[in-house]
Amino acid sequence: MIACVAVVGHQNNPLYIQSFTEADDALKLHHIVHCSLDVVDERVNNPKKSGPTLNETFLGLLYPTENYKVYGYLTNTKVKFILVTTDLDVRDADVRNFFRRFHAAYIDAVSNPFHVPGKKITSRTFAERVSTIVKSFGLSSAG
Amino acid sequence: MGREVSESCVDSLLTEIVSTYNNRFYANKPELAARRIEAIGYQVGHQLSERYTMERPRFSDHLEAIKFICKDFWSELFKKQIDNLKTNHRGTFVLQDNRFRWLSRISTDPSVENTESQDPSAAAESKASLATMHVYFPCGIIRGALSNLGIPCAVSADISNLPACKELLLSYSVLSFYDI
């Protein structure tokens, strides 16, 4: 199950962050997302370490914690997508697929002429689309 | 991705933007009108660059981003690649397009031409100034796309030989630490 997704701008400013857990642990998840930004920076600035994923938008598993796994994705425009999941055996293809659909949703949201670049994404359509993608992520990994 | 826009719609829209800003909003301030049109282009380029770079690996340096603009971005927008790319290796790039599509069908109002200017050189001059107003929008698009890709820059266009020639002068103020 996906616990949290986040979109972070190129100056590490939060653009969209949404948790999908029942429990009241939003702050903890925000903290996890915040920590992952350092890992993203490290991956990008030390391309040798990231090995096969050189210059790929998908950054792979950033770091595992006791209960969560954190995945990252960096677009050409230096916007970061962070995914926090509670599943411990996640297929790479699922995560890639998730990020591709998430990226498409993000592009549609920022292409809205009323969206101000660099500001938080407030679009309700985007929120709905994201929750649909998050729900279908659970299904595809089960099947 | 599948949605497309008719080319003639884009042409008419561009013409209308230019004439509205020049003749109605900022009739006596052509510089301000140019800035506003450029700003619209900037926003469009900012959004388009996000969309068109989606399936691509990340760019490792500025030259790769410029190449993307010359090849893929240019052909998405103008249906052809640029004809020539020159650089002075100090952060200035010159992109040359010998048949810039958005200017290929430009012409001045014949009634204005007949009444105001009889000699052909003045007519050519008015045509050039009209064309100059029309390139602020594409210049803004290129600037918006590049700055979204992390290259803050200034873009200016040089139209010497209509409609055959369009040179885009691209220079950015960041002195890069690697040799481009």
UniProtKB/TrEMBL annotation, chain A:
Family: Belongs to the TRAPP small subunits family. Sedlin subfamily.
Stated name of the protein: Trafficking protein particle complex subunit 2-like protein
GO biological process, one term: endoplasmic reticulum to Golgi vesicle-mediated transport
CDD domains: TRAPPC2L
SUPFAM superfamilies (UniProt xref): SNARE-like
Gene Ontology terms: cellular component: cytoplasm
InterPro entries, sorted: Longin-like_dom_sf (IPR011012), Sedlin (IPR006722), TRAPPC2L (IPR044760)
Automatic annotation (TrEMBL), chain B:
Gene Ontology process terms (BP): endoplasmic reticulum to Golgi vesicle-mediated transport
CDD domains found in the cross-reference section: TRAPPC6A_Trs33
GO CC aspect terms: cis-Golgi network; trans-Golgi network; TRAPP complex
Highest taxon of source: Eukaryota
InterPro entries reported in the protein's UniProt record: NO_sig/Golgi_transp_ligand-bd, TRAPP_component, TRAPPC6/Trs33
Classification via PANTHER family: GEO08327P1, TRAFFICKING PROTEIN PARTICLE COMPLEX SUBUNIT 6B
Similarity comment: family membership: Belongs to the TRAPP small subunits family. BET3 subfamily.
Name by which UniProt lists this protein: Trafficking protein particle complex subunit 6B
Species of provenance: Citrus clementina (Clementine)
